Amino acid sequence: MMRVWWAPILLLVSGGVLAARLFTDGSPLRGAAVLSAFALVAGLISPLVFPRSVTAAEAHRRSAADGRPIVFWRPGCAYCLRLRYAVRHRARRLHWVNIWRDPEAAAEVRAANDGNETVPTVLVAGTAHTNPNPSWLLAQLTRPSQP
């Protein structure tokens, strides 16, 4: 669990230290701006931006029932964030699996990517697509589900 939060926590601590230094140097506005910027970036790379993750086994079970794609992701991944932003309001129509929380999911991603944990990896109808174009994924979501 801590592995998921280390980058956002490090950003918040770093931003806090830098902001405190600016506050003590007599620049409270700059300090507040720096702290706000660090907090924003920390929030964006945290797991809070993504819908609640499920295990790979649960995602496969749900996908078999509703035909929705599975997205394997990890916190701190800029490409995952880009994909998540692109699908915005439709993100709940996907099954999100955090590979840092599920060793089975990480193994599945490695199997699909020549041994690399390249994310996002999207599984649509049993076929893995590594770092797909967000518009392609949106097109997959507009297709009728086939249970």
Question: Mean of the pLDDT scores?
Answer: 89
Low-confidence stretches: none
Distance between the termini: 33 Å
Assembly classification: single chain
Please state how the strands of the largest beta sheet are arranged side by side: 2-1-3-4
Beta-strand percent range: 5-15%
- Classification by helices and strands: alpha+beta
Number of strands: 4
The largest β sheet comes out as:
4 strands, mixed
Rg on CA atoms, Å: 18 Å
Helix content: 55-70%
The succession of helices and strands, N to C, reads: HHHEHEHEEH
Shape: elongated
Q: Helical region count? A: 6
Please outline what is shown here.
With 147 residues, the chain is an alpha+beta fold. It contains 6 helices and 4 strands, in the order αααβαβαββα.
Please give a structural write-up.
There is one protein chain. The chain is of the alpha+beta class and 147 residues long. Helices cover 55% and strands 11% of the residues. The chain has helices at 2-24, 28-45, 56-66, 78-87, 103-112, 134-142, and strands at 70-73, 95-98, 121-124, 127-130. It has a 4-stranded mixed beta sheet with strand order 2-1-3-4, covered by helices on one side. A hairpin with a 2-residue loop joins strand 3 (121-124) and strand 4 (127-130). Helix 1 (2-24) packs antiparallel against helix 2 and helix 4 runs parallel beside helix 6 (134-142). The longest helix is centred in the N-terminal third of the chain and has 23 residues, at 2-24. The radius of gyration is 18 Å and the shape is elongated. The model has no long low-confidence stretch (mean pLDDT 89).
